[in-house]
Every structure is written in C-alpha cells, then in structure tokens.
Amino acid sequence: MKQVIVTSKNPAKIAAVEAAFYDAFPDTLFTFTGVSVASGVAEQPMTEQETYAGACNRVRHAKAEYEGDFYVGVEAGLDGQHTFAWMMIDDGTTQGEARSASLPLPPEALDALHQGEELGDVMDRMFATENVKQKGGAIGMLTGHRLTRSSVYHQALIMALIPFMHPHLYR
C-alpha cells in the first residue's frame, strides 16, 4: 500500500488528492494522511510566485518530517484579480506540478485580501456562510456550486500526476 502525505488537513484538499490518485492509479491501494507543515509564505499568498513557493515548501517540509511514498503540496493564492492553486507532487525521484484553473474574484473580495484578510473569511462574510474553505471554497460559492474547490483541484492534480503515469516520458 502506498502512503500519500497531503500537506494540509483541509478535507476539501484531501478529497481532491484522494480522487486524483485513484483516478490516475485505479489498481493501486493508497492511504492518505493530512499533515500540517509550514508553507514559509503568508497565510494568504498574494502572488503566483509566492503561491508556488508555498506548495514547494510544504512538500519539502513534509519530506523532512514524515515517511511516505508521495508528498502532495496544494497552495492556493492570488495572481492579479484571480485565485488559483499550485499542485506539487514528489515521490523522491520524480516531481509533477500543475496550476489550477483561475477564478476571477469580485472587487470587494480583492480589496479585503489586500487589507490582509484570508479568502475563506471574506467568502464566509460575503455569502453569510461558515468555514467555506473546508467545503466548496470560493469556487463553489461563486459558481453556484457548479464547481467546487475539490473538483477544480482534482483536475490540476491529475495533470500534476502525468509524470508518474508516464514515467518513461519524464526521465
């Protein structure tokens, strides 16, 4: 059984990782463990570069602290007026990475983020919800639940798994 270390305890992120791994490797048994590790960036990354660094740092810290076959870093952040996430997957010899689709944010949300708030808190206030970041996320709220954080992350995670699905093409 392969051990997958997910560098988050957020149920939406863990669910996306589980779904992607089983879609990519349907005949492999996995266990998934969510862990809390430092990203080394702000709680709300404000640039594409900071978001990428956060995903990489989470994987690096998890590899130093936990024993696993795969390490998965998922870091959400901003790129201009959009929110998105970087996916980083590492098995010790191969790395895969992909960026999720971008979601345009309302001006009110962007203003709040630039004032230092986190997106989940902003969405909770704008939509009168609680803990949206562990449910459908801003993606769910803004798409009327046509998409969710997990569904959008799932697609990017599948893309990040491509080097593991076709290792002969990525050596």
From TrEMBL:
Every Non-canonical purine NTP phosphatase/PRRC1 domain range: 8-165
Binding-site list for Mg(2+): 67
Molecular-function GO terms, alphabetical: ITPase activity; metal ion binding; nucleotide binding
Assigned EC number: 3.6.1.73
Keyword Manganese: yes
Keyword DNA-binding: no
Annotated binding of substrate, by residue: 67-68
Cofactor, how bound (note): Binds 1 divalent metal cation per subunit; can use either Mg(2+) or Mn(2+).
Gene3D superfamilies with a match to the protein in the record: 3.90.950.10
Top-level EC class as recorded in UniProt: hydrolase
Function per UniProt: Phosphatase that hydrolyzes non-canonical purine nucleotides such as XTP and ITP to their respective diphosphate derivatives. Probably excludes non-canonical purines from DNA/RNA precursor pool, thus preventing their incorporation into DNA/RNA and avoiding chromosomal lesions.
Family: Belongs to the YjjX NTPase family.
Subunit structure: Homodimer.
Protein name as catalogued: Inosine/xanthosine triphosphatase
Organism this protein belongs to: Salinivibrio kushneri
